[in-house]
Amino acid sequence: MRTRILAGLPGVVALALTVVPAQAHEGHDHGAPVTVDVGWAPRATARSNDFDLVAVLAGKQLVVWLDRAADNAPVGKAQIEVEAGAWKGLATAAADGSYHVDAASLAGPGSHELVFTVQAGDAVDLLPATLVVPAAALAESEGKGRVVGGALGLLALAGALGWIFKRRLGRRAAS
Fold first, then answer.
1. How many structural domains does the chain have?
2. Which of 21, 58, 75, 154 is within CB 3.0–4.6 Å of 66 for a Cys-Cys bond?
3. Minimal CA–CA distance to 117: which of 105, 106, 101?
4. Which helix (H) or strand (E) holds 164?
């Protein structure tokens, strides 16, 4: 019995090493953090009963796609204004059905609260959205830390499993 417990101990230790501890702060929570995939351009989305809106920051341009919520058809000839604090921009229609706004002030890292005012025909709507622009160095270093931690955890697990199998094969050969 004692041998079985000791044989399983390295596996338990290896699994414990792969668990990432939860971090709390000062007794309150602001909800789930916004995740940002570094491989994608920063984007914001908003939805209402009338419209679906996706905005992507491409360099210093904010590219906006606007669709009708009912059938996902692109909305042409809409007037779109964007506000972020003191900054305001007016979108112009592009040939591909998107709208473009000069948004150099949004290119800096951080969280930008945007309000889109959309007018298309008789429909008028305010669409709030959050654009998160990651700091490239910070996002890159966090990604490397996760990869190294995961690799170390897998290495510890593989070592523990190898040790267990080696002991079992040794017992069978001795029998």
1. 2
2. 75
3. 101
4. helix 136-174
